[in-house]
Design brief:
The protein has 3 helices and 3 strands, in the order H-E-H-H-E-E. It has 66 residues and is an alpha+beta fold. The protein has a single domain, classed as Arc Repressor Mutant, subunit A (Orthogonal Bundle). It has a 3-stranded antiparallel beta sheet.
Length: 66
């Protein structure tokens, strides 16, 4: 059940990141309308699959597609 949810959430995040230079955690949360735990569930999936990169910019996490 959680694996299905993680995949669906990862798809929402991927769509939000597709076609732009990346987003901060706050921007992603707003764009996807996900709660924190679901946002990080999907990001974990995408990080494990090496689909996104993460860095810290001005104290905030910044995500972009690879």
């Amino acid at each position: 059940m959680m694996q299905e949810k993680a995949g669906v959430v990862a798809g929402k995040i991927w769509n939000a990141l597709n076609g732009n230079e990346g987003k901060t955690q706050k921007q992603l949360k707003k764009a996807t309308k996900l709660i924190d735990k679901d946002l990080f569930l999907g990001l974990g999936w995408l990080l494990r699959e090496e689909k996104v990169s993460v860095s810290e910019v001005a104290g905030e996490l910044f995500f972009r597609l690879k």
